[in-house]
Amino acid sequence: MVDCERCERGFPHQSAYLQHIRDSRSHNLCDDCGIDFSSWRGLKEHWVQSPDHDYCQYCDEHFSGWSDLIDHYRNDHDYCETCNRIFKNENGLHEHNRQSHKDRYCVSCRRIFRSENNLNSHLKSSIHKPKDVKCPFYGCDMAFVSKSALILHLESGSCQSGVNRQKVNQYVRQMDRNNAITNPSRLLTGGGDTTVDYIASERSWNGQAYECVLCHSRFAALLDLNRHLASPRHQDKIYKCPLSSCGIHFRTLSALCQHVESERCGIMKFQVVRHTLDNMLSGIGRIGYY
Predict the structure, then answer these.
(1) In a 10 Å sphere around its CB, with 0-12 CB exposed, 13-18 middle and 19+ buried, how is residue 194 labelled?
(2) Which among 56, 90, 104, 146 has the fewest CB atoms less than 10 Å away?
């Protein structure tokens, strides 16, 4: 004889008692843990709180693992992953993000970013800023959201004018005679115009991949290795932030411009610096004459 104290009933054997536990509204059994709760609310709270259960209380659904539960939250609910909170609707999540994650949340796009820097980059993109910086060269109708983007376009060699990174560097060397943004110790303002071009051949194959002899990076295709060698990766850091207390150096003019535009070091507060950079960039269309 097996007694149920909660219901004050007796059962002839254990199996009958267990069947009673499963069928009775007075019993709420967690089959996985073997715990019997006096109410449905108690059982549900157990599923929510216990690390042994991956349970969505809003859908009354169990999942096979934590990652599956999180995927469910992302796909079917208005979920804040940072706070691990679910909201009743999209507006509730939006208001939460606007107040609690304003340092990395774009209100107009209703989009949250991993960092404040990522948000700032998004706000400076063509999504929020007009492309009003036009390429000054004849035959090129490209336009950009910033001067650094224009310089990057020219450095890439994709402009129809034929301007590339070497010509940009040459132009800056001629313009920046006081070394406001260039480092004379890196020979940019020296007497020669020589640039070093690295070109890899099939001899770069090491048996497994095409290997860069300078940094030992590996590439599946020779074309990818040569693109790597043609990039600024192995060039000297010939540009510098004009703010002496900053001390950051860069391999390309576009990287310097991005740094200045980011206002991370406060360089744009100085009128002399703004004037110097604006004058240099306003004459960028004359690169072909240098």
Answers:
(1) exposed
(2) 90
CA separation for the pair 5, 20 (Å, rounded): 12
With a CB cutoff of 8 Å and minimum separation 6, the contacts of 231 are none
> Is the CA virtual torsion 137, 143, 147, 150 positive or negative?
negative
| 21-36 per-position pLDDT tens digit | 676 777 788 888 878 8
Specify if 236 maps to a domain.
yes
Domain that holds residue 228: 133-289
Residue 80 sits at φ, ψ, to 5 deg, of: -100, 110
Task: Write out the two tokens for 195.
Answer: 């640039």
Q: What is the count of structural domains for the chain?
A: 1
pLDDT per residue over 241-270, tens digit each?
A: 888 888 899 999 999 988 988 877 877 777
Burial class (CB in 10 A: 0-12, 13-18, 19+), 138: exposed
Q: Where are the alpha helices (DSSP H) in 193-250?
A: 222-230
CB atoms within 10 A of CB 189: 17
